[in-house]
């Protein structure tokens, strides 16, 4: 079996590109990503591309990357403010899933405690790329889930976000991170990208490749241990932000399975199951705690996996949690509408960044929680492991 899963996708181009990238280890990423000086502005006319900034120093490269990310963020925020477009539909889907509705008069807060970002790729490759848009999307969702308003700072500084004073932008990112932290992991991350994530965009980069098995409680411990006061402990505000969002567009199926395995109790944090002596199961009510937040996933459709996975052997895999939980999954497709095709340079890769993505929440509806799947251990033969991250 050459691939771990048999899956027929209608999003072939995006997934094939990710598959090719994931076959490289962190030490074998393409040479394009080896230094800050490789940041490129590309032109796609006649199938050619050029390097306009090959000889720039690192500070100039960082400035260009930051500017491009802010352009993406500003364009997505304009969609949200206009009440239409992809960013608005995504916020509505998340608001519905978290039972908190964006309000133009009340700050548009979502009920999200933290955001876990997995495997979006190298955002410093080129401006307005799919990974850069995915990063900007995560930054926007963090903002919407917090009490701080980047738009208020933008209005004080001027209409154009990218001309805002850097200290004001950075302070807004810092405040957002204190309220709704982003935990981020990308196996091919560059030192430049890690530095910018931590120092410019105030994102916590996770240590080590856990293949999706790291529990969110351990991510919090990493974050709180490295944060300066007053962020060393969760604030009263974010304790009431009840959901954990896993933000992972176009990630491989095995990564979703590992996340399900490591967070199985989060599907019904106030309902546990136990087995009686006669082998039957019964429902046990618990009060729960602030550490067991329900999870929401923004990524590939579980129902599509269910419909398109054709191997019965794979369906019976004891480590695959998707097929155990799919009947309790509520999905909202966040489509890319035609109006985005002429939305300007910052959103030109929007479809590639987010096509076929869904907001997935889970409801047991009074049913027993399915048995937890087994833990997946990769084979010694890499060809048998498929994709992880």
UniProtKB/TrEMBL annotation:
Residues 111-359 form the SRR1-like domain. Signal peptide: none annotated. InterPro entries: SRR1-like, SRR1L. Pfam families: SRR1 (PF07985). Belongs to the SRR1 family. PANTHER family: SRR1-LIKE PROTEIN (PTHR28626:SF3). This is SRR1-like domain-containing protein. It comes from Cyclotella cryptica.
